[in-house]
Amino acid sequence: xxxxxxxxxxxxxxxxxxxxxxxxxxxxxxxxxxxxxxxxxxxxxxxxxxxxxxxxxxxxxxxxxxxxxxxxxxxxxxxxxxxxxxxxxxxxxxxxxxxxxxxxxxxxxxxxxxxxxxxxxxxxxxxxxxxxxxxxxxxxxxxxxxxxxxxxxxxxxxxxxxxxxxxxxxxxxxxxxxxxxxxxxxxxxxxxxxxxxxxxxxxxxxxxxxxxxxxxxxxxxxxxxxxxxxxxxxxxxxxxxxxxxxxxxxxxxxxxxxxxxxxxxxxxxxxxxxxxxxxxxxxxxxxxxxxxxxxxxxxxxxxxxxxxxxxxxxxxxxxxxxxxxxxxxxxxxxxxxxxxxxxxxxxxxxxxxxxxxxxxxxxxxxxxxxxxxxxxxxxxxxxxxxxxxxxxxxxxxxxxxxxxxxx
Length: 407
Fold this sequence. Notes:
Blueprint: H1 3-13, H2 19-31, E1 35-41, E2 47-50, E3 61-62, H3 67-74, E4 78-81, E5 86-95, E6 98-108, H4 114-134, H5 140-144, H6 152-160, E7 165-168, E8 171-178, E9 187-192, E10 196-203, H7 208-227, H8 232-247, E11 254-261, E12 266-272, E13 276-281, E14 284-288, E15 307-310, E16 316-320, H9 322-325, H10 336-346, H11 355-367, E17 376-383
């Protein structure tokens, strides 16, 4: 049995809470590793938290100020010179574009050959798959993701999300919510198939648990309709009925619903509320307006109309909630379209996974206070288009087929 197969088997047969122990044992035995540590990205994407069981603990490391963060941000293996004849190798723990964390391995310099590094990168990807599966049965990795305690509303919202990023040859998606540990109503959801990507951007009404409950009802009603194979306008109508039946119009849900044809870039859109879409094409930023329709659940038996729109390879689409574009600064000035356009231009060279966090940092600077009054949502979609048959796309890994659900 070769060493990679041994590592893969050890991970697949380990108990859910013992994945780190399993990978540590096999890397020490077969790769001469001296130490192995796993770091998980926290909900705010500010630090990488060590996965550990008391009393064994490590300090968190910064996403933007550490060697581990460099591997996480670039999504590439980073070999850090260390004292003597050792090297510390930092490997992204990522599954189908969803960035979970970093695996750090201390190796003798003579064990850092090209073949070993390639195998370690593959082992880190297997570990990412196993972490997602293990989260069904243990809280260890979810606990490691939090540097602060989540509010109950935030706990409900993070459990509802599909992930924070995903990639396919046709597109890359990244998303982030603020305040990460106290969100309540804003949400995003996506699902992809061989030929389509469905994306929902939700701007929840209200605060706290009530807002989270409303969003949970709306998202699950949309999922229920989507999984029944119902077209976009009927998904909206059925979710509208479900919310109205529960709240009788006293609470409702704003949502932007998009259905992309992956082969053509043609998309079908329902704009039912306040989330906005902004497009970067070349160096031109413009808000894209659709026909405004009623939020879900505002009135009984609302009919929804689908509009059509087309994206081109190279387009970047940003979707934002009113917690972004309507935020006011200390002097009462709104963040607005001009400030958002500047933020989009300034982040144009970043990958889609990094853009939401960068835009939210600029928003925080405009706000001038540490805690927002409303939750804020940014989703970034980079559209590559489907490559011609026989040509590799920007993400030609056959394993990157769909966005993988993760809290």
